[in-house]
Amino acid sequence: MEHAVAPMRSAYGDSQLHCFSFGAHEEENVLCVAVDGYLTSRLVRVQSACYTAEIFRSVDCDCHEQLDQSLQRVHDQGGVVVYMLADGRGAGLLTKIRGLSLNASRGLDTFDAYRELGVEPDPRDYTRIAAVLERLGLHEVKLLTNNPRKVEGLRRHGLVVDRVPLEIPPTTESLPYLATKRQKFGHLLELVPGASEREGVDSPSPEVRD
Ligand SMILES: [Zn+2]
């Protein structure tokens, strides 16, 4: 594992940006935004890339808001955001976009679309993440997540993990995706619509189908 680190100034504040490299390919890098105090707070977010939301600002999922809120919280309290360059829950961009296409054409949710494509719905592996956290001196973490698999994935590598919820209130657009996360991926979500932070969007009162 190769490693480089540099100070970073961002809209959120000052941090150290780490790059841990596990191979020659771009997606084999793991990025960490580490904010002073993380060894005390032990606050950690493990986020996998969602280029559609984070770069193009698609509103069909909550990934951008989760990243935004995580960065705010680690800058407030000290902590680390670990960023995996693995879109589509590690299945890759082509699979993700094929899944979105099936969603649009046939109404399949992400879980069923991945199955239709012959792909594991959540093939993420946390070996590298665990190695990176250990390297940063984090053996016990408070993990910002709603995903029990992520908690289990890190525990399997010997980390001690407490879960800290990170729920973004659903919008009309994101609700179907979030409902799938809850029903089929077992995410611990309340799905209570809150005041939307986006201008011009009313808070919906959608029905959640179980
Ligand atoms: Zn997303």
From TrEMBL:
Keywords: GTP-binding, Hydrolase, Metal-binding, Nucleotide-binding, Riboflavin biosynthesis, Zinc. It catalyses: GTP + 4 H2O = 2,5-diamino-6-hydroxy-4-(5-phosphoribosylamino)-pyrimidine + formate + 2 phosphate + 3 H(+). It holds the Pfam family GTP_cyclohydro2. It is an enzyme of class 3 (hydrolase). Its EC number is 3.5.4.25. Pathway: Cofactor biosynthesis; riboflavin biosynthesis; 5-amino-6-(D-ribitylamino)uracil from GTP: step 1/4. Its cofactor is Zn(2+). Residues 5-163 form the GTP cyclohydrolase II domain. InterPro entries: GTP_cyclohydro_II (IPR032677), RibA (IPR000926), RibA-like_sf (IPR036144). The keyword Flavoprotein does not apply. PANTHER family: 3,4-DIHYDROXY-2-BUTANONE 4-PHOSPHATE SYNTHASE (PTHR21327:SF18), GTP CYCLOHYDROLASE II-RELATED (PTHR21327). This is GTP cyclohydrolase II. The lineage of its organism: Bacteria, Bacillati, Actinomycetota, Actinomycetes, Micrococcales.
